Structure formats: C-alpha cells, structure tokens
Amino acid sequence: MIMNEDNKLTMSSPDNNVNEICHQFISRSVHGFTKYGVTTERDDLNFDQWLQHLKEELMDAVVYIHRIQKERENESK
Fold it and tell me: 55 and 77: one domain?
C-alpha cells in the first residue's frame, strides 16, 4: 500500500492487469453515478429487484459473447 498526498491509502498490485481492471471498476462507477445518480449502496431495491438487474446484465453479456463468436466464425470461413 502507498500513502498519497491526501494521506489516503492507495493500493497497487504487482500485476498490471489487476491494476487496469481496478481502474476500470472505478471509472465505471463514476460514469454510472454521473448517469444515474445512484450507487450500488442504494436501498430502494429489494432482493428480487437486485436479482432482476443482475439477470439483465448477464443477458447482455450473453448477447456480447454470441456476437463475438459469430464474428470469429465468419473470420474462419
């Protein structure tokens, strides 16, 4: 861990891939808060609503995977 100029602890990994992913998480969080005005600490959703959000995110991920697979299939023809 490293202390920054504001005397706040910052963490860094010896693995640059981990550092890049952590940066992406923070960037995504800031973008989401700017766009929607809420964080995942919100308390206006119940358990089933959180599961619905997760389901929709995973459905999007499956669509992205499918698109990439089709693209790779077309490249190998």
Answer: yes
pTM: 0.71
Angstrom distances, CA of residue 37 to CA of 42, 46, 59: 10, 18, 24
List Cα–Cα distances, 23 to 18, 27, 28, in angstroms. Answer: 9, 6, 9
Residue 64's domain spans which residues? 45-77
Question: Is 63 found in the same domain as 32?
Answer: no
Q: Encode the chain (77 residues) as per-residue pLDDT tens digits.
A: 455 777 676 788 999 999 999 999 999 999 999 999 999 999 999 999 999 999 999 999 999 999 999 999 999 98
If one counts the domains in the chain, the total is: 2
- Specify whether the CB–CB gap between 13 and 19 falls below 8 A: yes
